[in-house]
Amino acid sequence: MLTTQEIQNLMEEDISSEKKRLARIGERYYNGEHDILKYQIYYYDADGKLQLDKFKSNIRISHPFFTELVDQQVQYMLSGDGNIIRSDIPELQTALDDYFNDDFYSEVYELLIGTASKGFEYMYAVTDADGRTRFECADSMGVVEVRAKDTDDGCEYFIYWYVDRIEKGQKKIKRIQVWDSEQVYFYVQADEGRILPDDSVEMNPRLHTVFTDPKGRRYGKGFGFIPFWRLDNGRKQVSGLKPVKDLIDDYDLMACSLSNNLQDFTDALYVVSGFQGNNLDEMIQNIKAKKHIGVDNGGAVDIKTVDIPYQARQAKLELDEKNIYRFGMGFNSAQLGDGNITNIVIKSRYALLDLKCNKLEIRLKQFFRKLLKVVLDEINAANETDYQMKDVYFVFDREVMTNAQDNAEIEKTDAEKQQVMINTILSVANVLDSETVVQTICEILDIDYDEIRDKLPKDEEQDTRQAEQVLNNIVPDDGGDTGE
Fold this sequence. Notes:
By secondary structure, the protein is of the alpha+beta class. It is built from 14 helices and 17 strands.
């Protein structure tokens, strides 16, 4: 078991790692905290020394494109009816719905947000009051994978810490959990002080799953493995921010520089010659309040304005925005086009977002398989069944906005096509039997013939002929009786 000092050292090494540093940048940009917020303006004074300019406008505004790109991807991944994990076995589907419900998909939402913004995120198993396994998202910034000594195969421990609360005086209280293959050890730490066993936990250490029998006695068992799973945003576990960070920073700089120029050059410059007076402050006051000043016969007032070259900045902003959505593989809702927004055009604009989601979908299916194995084992043990992984499949029914007029025209065309096919069948109905005609029409209208067959009206004339034919085969003709 790890000592408290080893836990402290592992947490400090992990938080300062390059992997976590890049993840923090992605998390920061997702929260709208861009590098522009630290931007400063400097100048060289008369002595050639670099000085901070405290008087010039320094507007700093973050433009959260990355927040939109991440939310787009996650919402698009989880669009549809929300039921991704399915089975064609009704009993199994009912059992699965008890595990993979709205609470589960709420945790999956947080999982995907962390994966897209930070590059990787975790989910772990817990036990509810009924002794059933549930899954919760774990912030990857607080998860430390402890590899076995002298090897890189598998993890010997998982350390999971989070800030539980902040007490008066800004004192942070951290809850620390150390997981092995059988049980969990709980610790607490105030700020950066000593790590101590958490006395607020009733059972410490505690097995992974804990049950209470009818007599109130508690018992439990371990999974036999550490129930932590990681979802990666690609093999290198890199945030989706990497391809677009420089573009977003450039957009922030261009937009804020334009705002600074507008702020610094809002007032006109007054060039006054032949001023009648000795007080410059009085002249300025006259301009602001009375809108006039006095000059001599040769005097004049010339108002100078500064033209801000905003066209170049505006063109650069538009180019940056276009490239952010292109290389960030997102859907640009501000894209105007030529006004002919058909379903084909809309689908083409979703092409990059579809491509990005398809890559994540492959990894998410692999991730769900790992959780599903735990759930099926628990279902089989509780119900004495033998459900297999092959009995379950995944459906990602992503929804795309459509043009209502296009949809109406498509429906009209389909209806006209059905009408032509039905008319063709009816035109040759006199050479076909009625059952064939009805079956064909049912296929065209997507109606189950077996369900309506007993409800169809009877052909009494045909039934009479069939009955006479059967009767003739059973009862011999009187004219054929040759007996004496």
